[in-house]
Every structure is written in C-alpha cells, then in structure tokens.
C-alpha cells in the first residue's frame, strides 16, 4: 500500500494540479537544525483545506447548520530529504481515489530546486455531524472532486 | 511596570504556592538548540488552566450554559537562562492582583537546579460570553482567588 | 501493510511494555474542539525518545563526537476516536521489527477508559552523521531493542 | 512602560514601514474557535526574522564562523480583537529604540479590515556567541537599523 502510494506520488507529479506555498519558520525547526518531522502534517492540513476550498467544498463548514463535516481518518508522511529553516516549499495535493463517502488525498512537497522533499497521503471521510456516520458524496461533489 | 513585576516574581518566590511540571519536548526546541521562545507561552497556558482548575474556577467552562468565560488580555515573558531539550521545568503561577473582573497572574519557571529560567505575567479578564463585557468576580470567586 | 500494522497494534496490546503519559493542552486543541490531528505526531516523538532512552539508546546523541544518529524515515497515524482537551493519554511504543540499520516502531494511544484512541507506526533509521548512510546496529544494540 | 508602548504602536502606525503576511492555519486555532494566544509569538518571530533579513542583518547568522548572534530578552503581546481561522493578517515590525547592543522592536497585527488585532514588543540583544556578553552594534549596523 505504501509502495503504491509513493510510486503514484513521485511518478505522476504531473497529475498534481493544485499547490500552496509555505516558508519554513524558525519555530518549526528543531535542535537537529531541520524542519521538525511533526510540522509536515501542519503543512498537509493547510494545503488540504486550501485545496478543498479551491474545489468549492468546505465553503460553509464553519456554519452551525452544516450537516456534514470532513474528518481525517489517517495521515502518513515519508521523508525524502532534509528541509531547513527559511526554505520555501510548494505543497501539492490531489485526490487519488473517490469513495462513497471518503477521498484519498496524496501530498507532495518540493523545495526551490524542484526536488521532492517529502510525500504524504491520508483518507478524509465525510460524516454526518449528528449521527457520526459516513455521508455519501452527492453527484455534484463528485464532479468537483474529479475536477482536480 | 515590567520592573516591578520582575522584582515581585523573583523576590517573592515563596508566595508561589502552585506549580505544574513540564518536560521540554524535542519538537519544542529550535535550530539554536534551545527551547523555542514561543513555547514558554504554551507552558504558561497549561499552568494557568491547571491553576484555575485547582482553585475551583473553570470547573464548568466547557459547558454550553456557562455565562462567563476567561480571556487573556495580555501576556509577557522574560527570558533569564537558556533551556534545553529534555529539561524538566516547574512552572509556578500565582494571582498577583485581583481586580473587579480581572486578575493579574505571575509566572515563574525553574529548572532542576532550582534556578529561575524565565518569568512571565499576564492579565486574565472574566467576560460575559454574550455581551463580551467584563463580568465582576463574585465574593466566592474572590475567596477562591485569595486562597493561592 | 497498513492493515497488518493496525491488526498488530490493536491485537497485540499486551506486547507493549513501555508507555508515557501526556495530558492534552488547550493549545493542542483546534476549533473543532478536539486534539488537532497534527499533535499526535508530537506525542509519538515524545514517546519514541523516552522509549529509546529507556532502552539505553540515544544516551549520548546530543554530543558532538557521536557518529551515528537516528532519523525518522516515515510516520503514520490512524485516528480511532476523538480526543478532547485535558484528557490524559497513555502513549505506548514497541519495536515491531529490527532491520539491519533500522527499526519499525508501533504506537498506541489509550484514553483514561483504556480505549484505543489512535495508533501509529514509523521506521527509524540509524545513519552515520557524516556519510548519511545507514549504520548497522551492533549486537549490543540489537539486544537492547529485543528487550522491549 | 506598557502604556507607552501601546500608545506608540497604535498612534504611530505610519512609522511601521515593514510587514509580512500570514494566514491563520486550522492547527493554530483552539477549541474556543480563535487563533490560540500562544501563536501570536510565532508570527512575531517570523516577522522579526524577515524584518532583520530585509535590513541586511542576520544574513550570515547560520554560519559556524559567526561571532555575534541575536537573542530574545523578552516578549509581550496585547490582544485587542479575536482572530479567527483563515484570516489573513499583516504583521508590522519596527525598531522603536536602538541601544548599545540591543534593540526594542514593536509589532502590530492588522486584519483584512485594517483593524489592529494585537500588538507586541520585545527586546533583542546581540551577544557574542562564545562569551555570552552583549556585543555593541557597529556604526554600519546602526545605520541599517535607522533605515526602517
């Protein structure tokens, strides 16, 4: 499973159509002088939300009346190259699989030399806020997800 | 103002009757090899909440029906000594002043050699959740605050 | 791969012999009211280092003359149950596989009701600080790793 | 002291000539739904370093041979208005006072409506890396600091 996601991510770079930029903050480094391992997930979260916003999903998720919310089922990161203070990274996101009420997102981070520095994946599930059960994507939502 | 709080904090160490322990995490260090400056405020927050819980305040603040909540008006930290990975610190808190609807809290962090490593202060205000206005302490609450 | 690690982690709970406690800080929650997803990796890091220290590994890793250091190759977390502010969690760690110069660590977090709330895994590699190449475990180190 | 810095910061907005933008991340909110209080210091740190880089200071501070480094002596933040997820803030920095080997920096954060949401201040001291003692600014450095 891991192998196939990594292959996908690194071999199909051209399939990533969305990305956001981040700049490594001093507070995000650790005493080894690198970006701390735990911070990559913060970047994935930022990129994921921007990506979902760009698709037109999550436009009203902060409102009280919203029935369905998106929750993270799992997260994974593979570290390929050290990242240092002040580097500017581009974090790419794409939908690798659309399930009934879930999506698998793939992530790829590249440095200014266009080198992959870390990759990631994770499943996001749409659930009903009240029942906690999976809420199937509508056809409209599937269209949005197929877009990018 | 700063001068007087520092004097207070360092000269009246015996007036601190409450403390909590924290251990510096690897992710809390930065590339200079020290505890990152921004993390001390996380420790203050942790200590502050434990302190207020110990007083019997904030026992029900997470419930919907709660009228009054506590908000932080300002925060300050003075760095006295470098703190390193894995050090165990004791974070002391005390109420230095009780106002009509606010309190000034003082903080002191000591390392395992009992040396002060940083101090802090900050005002916390009780406000009405709906009006956003200051909500005066009851006599009972003042009693609790005088306790420590 | 994921399936097998999850099975392992949840079915072989009794094989976890090491754990550390953490308490969810207010600053570690997010606007959904839960422990933010990115913080579980901070807990894993804290537990991993305490675990390695408990084995007698990493006793001198902060010193200049150290030849070999441990680096994280990948990290994964599966979220089973929501975790809230102030909960006390126990984070379990064990070595699930010993390679030539790497180990696979499994993680399990339980709440105060002894329910699993999230699990994780990740490979740690010992590399030579100067060459950046994998550095094989000594027989002594393998013994230490077999201990827990 | 506090009073005068606040006055300075809010009344002399036009004296701020440098700023950086930040966008509030989901992981930076807390269960109250706001930007967590501790994160403002992370923004100050990011803005401070960008500011010092823009002045031409700290251009070589990551190199081994550097004699003098800048350390934070104290930090302060006053919270004026709640800040929410996804807001774009502009963080302004300026040098309010130049001492022999230190500077006082003032910070001001504004939201997209151009409203001040929090202010801050803090002293940064240049010390000799080896002796730990204050290292006086050169005339060239003072010129750079007067620039903005």
Number of E strands of chain A: 6
Indicate the multimeric state. Answer: homotetramer
Distance between the termini of chain A: 23 Å
- What is the string of helix and strand elements of chain A? HEHEEEEEH
| Helicity range of chain A | 10-25%
CA-based shape of chain A: globular
Percent strand of chain A equals 25-35%
Largest interface: B-D, 23 and 22 residues
Strand-pairing-aware structural class of chain A: alpha+beta
Low-confidence stretches of chain A: none
- Structural Rg of chain A: 16 Å
Specify the biggest β-sheet of chain A: 6 strands, antiparallel
DSSP helix count of chain A?
Answer: 3
Describe this structure in words.
Four copies of one chain form a homotetramer. By secondary structure, the first copy, chain A, is an alpha+beta fold. The first copy, chain A, contains three helices and six strands. In chain A, strands 1, 2, 3, 4, 5 and 6 form a six-stranded antiparallel beta sheet that branches. The two termini of chain A are 23 Å apart. The model of chain A has no long low-confidence stretch (mean pLDDT 90). Chains in contact: A-B, A-C, A-D, B-C, B-D, C-D. Chains B and D meet through helix 2, strand 2 and strand 3 of B and helix 2, strand 2 and strand 3 of D. Strand 3 of chain B pairs antiparallel with strand 3 (74-79) of chain D, so a sheet runs across the interface.
């Amino acid at each position: 499973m891991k192998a196939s996601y990594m292959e996908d991510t690194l071999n199909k770079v051209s399939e990533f159509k969305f990305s956001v930029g981040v700049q490594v903050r001093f507070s995000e480094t650790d005493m080894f002088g690198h970006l701390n391992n735990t911070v990559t997930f913060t970047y994935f979260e930022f990129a994921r939300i921007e990506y979902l916003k760009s698709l037109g999903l999550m436009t009203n998720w902060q409102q009280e009346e919203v029935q369905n919310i998106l929750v993270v089922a799992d997260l994974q990161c593979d570290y390929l190259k050290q990242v240092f203070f002040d580097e500017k990274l581009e974090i790419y996101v794409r939908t690798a699989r659309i399930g009934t009420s879930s999506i698998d997102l793939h992530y790829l981070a590249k440095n200014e030399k266009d080198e992959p520095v870390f990759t990631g994946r994770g499943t996001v599930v749409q659930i009903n806020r009240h029942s906690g059960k999976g809420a199937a994507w509508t056809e409209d939502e599937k269209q949005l997800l197929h877009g990018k």
